[in-house]
Specification:
Helix content: 55-70%
Strand order of the largest sheet: 1-2
Structural class: mainly alpha
Strand content: under 5%
Number of strands: 2
Order of helices and strands: HHHHHHHHEEHH
Distance between the termini: 22 Å
């Protein structure tokens, strides 16, 4: 993919935050891609009845919600409101994983789908247990570790909150929203969050085609139409 952010490690993005041209390219591409994907889901309006408790309806609703959260993440980062984006990261994963679990259509998944339609909460550990049994312990651990990392933004751990502070005189902490212009927001934070968002958008594309609401052909077409022809070159050597 043209923008380096589509395959960029968040830690590397944090260490090298000044690739503004590449960041702007990602923004242009991500906006086009998410807009195109949203149209694919929006066409199912006036398709499902309120009484319908089908698997297809559940997947559509969950993935549509995750897609909207990705759009909110992107626009929040544009305005340097990274705290909102950070909270939504885990929300996207939880929603996509729940749709994936229901899609397995196992007897237990069918039972949980019925509970979901009765407005019960289905914990993320249910999906992780399913992954452990069907894929393996390593896959379950990988998903759990990723989920736990994103949960730190939701639960506001120290290091998660620390990303919202810069240093002033004598290395004293300054809240990055101290100025209404948000000029104190660290470029490192925004750069790393864009890289995380790119991972989540890529994951969404994989999940969307795998669960049958949109086809792989639609995903491929949306990606091809949104990506620019050449990659904006890096301005700085990696550190």
């Amino acid at each position: 993919m043209p923008s380096i952010f589509w395959n960029r490690n968040p830690e590397e993005a944090y260490r090298n935050p000044y690739e503004y041209s590449a960041q702007k390219q990602f923004l242009r591409e991500a906006r086009k891609l998410l807009k195109s994907l949203f149209k694919s889901y929006d066409r199912f309006n006036l398709t499902f009845s309120c009484e319908d408790q089908s698997l297809r309806k559940a997947i559509w609703m969950l993935q549509h919600d995750a897609l909207d959260s990705l759009r909110d993440c992107l626009e929040s980062l544009v305005t340097k409101r990274h705290r909102i984006a950070g909270r939504l990261f885990r929300d996207v994963i939880e929603t996509l994983d729940l749709a994936a679990y229901f899609h397995s259509d196992s007897p237990q998944a069918k039972k949980q789908l019925g509970k979901w339609y009765k407005d019960e909460v289905i914990p993320h550990r249910v999906y992780r247990d399913y992954i452990r049994v069907t894929v393996g312990i390593a896959a379950e651990k990988e998903r759990r570790d990723f989920y736990c990392q994103l949960s730190k933004f939701t639960h506001r751990t120290y290091r998660a909150l620390l990303k919202g502070y810069s240093l002033g005189r004598d290395d004293l902490m300054v809240y990055d929203s101290h100025c209404p212009s948000r000029s104190l927001v660290l470029p490192q934070t925004i750069s790393a969050f864009y890289a995380i968002l790119a991972d989540l958008i890529t994951l969404f594309c994989d999940e969307a085609s795998a669960r049958g609401i949109v086809t792989q052909g639609e995903i491929d077409q949306a990606q091809k139409a949104s990506l620019e022809t050449t990659t904006v070159p890096r301005r700085f050597a990696q550190r």
